[in-house]
Design brief:
This protein is an alpha/beta fold and 191 residues long. It contains 6 helices and 7 strands. The longest helix has 24 residues. One of its GO terms (cellular component) is cytoplasm.
């Protein structure tokens, strides 16, 4: 196992028609991190686009699976096996309905809370103790179905702060890698 390499995976759906969806918050954060690392994402045989480099001094593989959200587990397991990254050094960045829009929360392990991407990853890895950076997208209005809500683009009001929120989530990932989960939670859960 690689003891100094981190695998940071952003979840989303591939293709331009999904690019602005709430479900693609993980991809948006990975694009921010990719800009900080420098370079371009390249196709990997593990069915993902990857960028290898350094982030805040840590060795990282940034990855965006090319599968649909509910099949994210296969590419994540393939990358984890290829790079020999232990589960405790695997970070998944994803949208979260149960957190207000713009809030960032971090945790280790836990259930999937109805998130099909997390369900697929947990099943494929056979382990739920990977780290998570959760990007709050809020609850759907009225009686709107949650699945329909996450497949809609962020509203015009939300888009005004989207870049800033993606940057903050990127900061949370960096702090998680350099200072650990407890320190990152202390900073990002307070705001």
């Amino acid at each position: 196992m690689s003891t100094d390499l981190w695998l940071v995976v952003g979840l989303g759906n591939p293709g331009p028609s999904y690019a602005g969806n709430r479900h693609n918050a993980g991809f948006m954060v990975l694009d921010v991190l990719g800009g900080r690392v420098g370079g371009r994402f390249k196709s990997h045989k593990g069915r993902a686009d990857v960028l290898e480099g350094r982030l805040a001094g840590a060795r990282v593989v940034l990855a965006k699976p090319r599968s649909y959200m509910n099949e994210s587990g296969g590419p994540v397991k393939a990358l984890r096996d290829f790079y020999k990254v232990p589960v405790e050094r695997t970070v998944v960045v994803h949208d979260e309905l149960d957190i207000p829009y713009g809030a960032i929360r971090l945790k280790k392990g836990g259930g999937d809370n109805g998130h099909n991407g997390l369900r697929s990853i947990t099943k494929s890895l056979g382990d739920r103790d990977y780290l998570r950076v959760r990007f709050g997208v809020g609850r759907p209005p009225g009686r709107m179905d949650a699945a329909a809500f996450v497949l809609k683009d962020f509203s015009s009001t939300e888009r005004k702060e989207l870049d800033l929120n993606a940057e903050r989530a990127g900061d949370a990932v960096e702090m998680l890698l350099t200072d650990g989960l407890d320190a990152a939670q202390n900073v990002f859960h307070a705001s």
